From TrEMBL:
Family annotation (CDD domains): AGPR_1_C, AGPR_1_N
NCBIfam families reported in the protein's UniProt record: argC (TIGR01850)
Name of this protein: N-acetyl-gamma-glutamyl-phosphate reductase
Pfam families, A to Z: Semialdhyde_dh, Semialdhyde_dhC_1
GO cellular component, one term: cytoplasm
Catalyzed reactions per annotation: N-acetyl-L-glutamate 5-semialdehyde + phosphate + NADP(+) = N-acetyl-L-glutamyl 5-phosphate + NADPH + H(+)
Residue ranges constituting the Semialdehyde dehydrogenase NAD-binding domain according to the UniProt record: 6-148
Gene that encodes the chain: argC
Annotated organism of origin: Pseudolabrys taiwanensis
Length: 352
């Protein structure tokens, strides 16, 4: 086998960063050559995440100490906060114009920089790079991703809604003004930074909606659904926080267009994803649990009949840290590097 590609993980001390390291360690085509973490700079990865004690990994360093031109990295994963990422990636491309980057933040997901400013509260800091960014939902944009240099990894909530809905929108099979997405996420979706509202005693034995009517992922959903439909689409979306570590479950309510039945909607999804390695459509009437995909890069989709005539209930589940973040990022890397798409990310879900 040829020499391994050198990759870097920026923001390795967060949940998505550590998940990248976990998965990259068993990837046969890569060598982890750089790990950054601002507050943990100078530490070993095992000091931040003891599960990595048996493995030889680079010492964590601060971003400002990295010489991008001399780094020799073939691909860089950015698992940094939004806004920060735009400045960092701009600096990387200035020093290493041929770099390949998969960005796990929200900084390059919105093609419209005005929309980004509206939803994130500040102007886009690298609009010239936004023009070349490709939205990294592999099953929908595979052809463009293969040629990309900068990939905007999708959000976890959005992946769990776009995968079941985009094929139906493309097929003109559902009414576009009657889509409701009721989504629930585990705690890791909120990141690893200490927050009072995320303390165990604040979230255990409870369940709540948040970002009601104004969650930032709405802009991402609007963009991708409108792109699929060829006209503006605005859906109802409400996220909820569940006291569990991993997983997203989206319960989606749709109405069939021109008499399309729930069974026909199921058939459309079944055909669309028949050859996809990481999307599995269950038999009609069966619905997934988050535990069915835990630790895997899979998305499970179920379709059931609503008691309201003409309406269907679609339920999708994925692991927010894997298919919703780090696993999908590696799937994007595999495409960009010309490797088999499933390389290093084909593990079966953990159960129980």
């Amino acid at each position: 086998m040829a020499s391994k590609a050198k990759v870097g993980v920026l923001g390795a001390s967060g949940y998505t960063g550590s998940e990248l390291v976990r998965m990259l360690l068993r990837h046969p085509r890569v060598e982890i050559a750089l790990l950054t973490a601002e507050r943990s700079a100078g530490k070993q990865m095992r000091e931040v995440f003891p599960q990595f004690s048996p493995y030889e990994l680079p010492t964590l360093v601060a971003l400002e100490s990295v010489d991008w031109a001399a780094s020799g990295l073939d691909l860089i994963f950015c698992a940094l906060p939004h806004a920060t990422t735009q400045k960092v990636i701009k600096a990387i491309f200035a020093a290493a114009p041929s770099a390949k980057i998969v960005d796990l933040s929200a900084d390059f997901r919105l093609a419209d920089t005005a929309a980004y400013a509206k939803w994130y509260g500040h102007e886009h800091l690298a609009p010239e790079l936004q023009q070349q960014a490709v939205y990294g939902l592999v099953e929908i944009h595979r052809r463009d991703i293969k040629k990309a240099q900068l990939i905007a990894n999708p959000g976890c909530y959005t992946s769990c809604a776009e995968l079941p809905l985009i094929p139906l929108i493309k097929a003109k099979a559902i009414e576009l003004d009657d889509i409701v997405i009721d989504a629930k996420s585990g705690m890791t979706g909120a990141g690893r930074a200490a927050k009072e509202a995320m303390l165990f005693s604040e979230v255990s034995e409870g369940f709540n909606a948040y970002g009601v009517g104004h969650h930032r992922h709405m802009a991402e959903l609007d963009q991708e659904f409108s792109r699929a439909a060829g006209k503006e689409v605005v859906v109802s979306f409400t996220p909820h926080l569940l006291p569990m570590n991993r997983g997203i479950l989206s319960t989606i309510y749709v109405r069939g267009r021109r008499g399309k039945t729930p069974e026909e909607l199921h058939e459309i999804l079944l055909k669309f994803y028949a050859k996809e390695p990481f999307v599995h459509v269950l038999p009609f009437g069966e619905t997934p649990h988050t535990r069915h995909v835990r630790g895997s890069n899979m998305t499970f989709i179920g379709v059931a009949k609503d008691r309201v005539p003409g309406k269907a209930i679609i339920i999708a589940a994925l692991d927010n840290l894997v298919k919703g973040a780090s696993g999908q990022a590696i799937q994007n890397m595999n495409l960009v590097m010309g490797w088999p798409e499933t390389t290093g990310i084909d593990q079966v879900a953990l159960f129980p």
